[in-house]
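re: ur question from yesterday

yeah so i grabbed the chain u mentioned. its 194 aa long if i counted rite. heres the sequnce exactly as i have it in my notes:
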Amino acid sequence: MKKLIAIISSFSMVASMASISATVNSCTTIKEAVELKYKNLKSDKDVIDLLTNKEKVNIFPNGKPLIIKDNKLNDDYDKPYDDIAATGLHVAKINESLIQFASKEHFNYLGYDLNDIFEDVESLKAEQSHEDYNAKWKLYFATINGKKGEASFMLNIYTFDLDINSIKFGAHKSEKVYYRTINLVSDQKSAVNK
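ran it thru and got these structure tokens back, copy pasting raw so excuse formatting
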């Protein structure tokens, strides 16, 4: 039981720092990701404004908001945040950078600000259950994928499922559930409600 509590505590601590890497379980049927839809009058500009706000966002591994120079990415956003390996949870990496939002509830890593921009995000709620020596979590987190010098990037939302029991660490899987290409220079009329 102490070992289970230690494992759960380690995971909680790491997760609260938004240091989750993603894995895809090859034995699992993966649904195709769906493009995020903007709420009325929202656009790529709203996403850019959010991700460049240092009071609301950190992007790992560098721990800074989105950096843009001359309407292009001024940093690479294809590096996974790898500190989770210290917990003993070994998962495959994806070549994307994790987004940590400042405003969040316990285990809700998407924050509140994405709810104001996208229709689909509000329904993505973290779930957790504990029964005897078993614990299950379903978390959602956002990543960014793009390279320095590019005029667009991908915003992705993943689900991360973890099942822990007292006998073994457990099974985990992750899959991309939503995505959106964000253009740094765009015709704002064409970006709204697409």
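noticed a couple things. Confidence is low (pLDDT under 50) at residues 1-28, 83-92, 188-194. also Helices lie at 2-16, 44-51, 113-117, 188-191.
anyway ttyl
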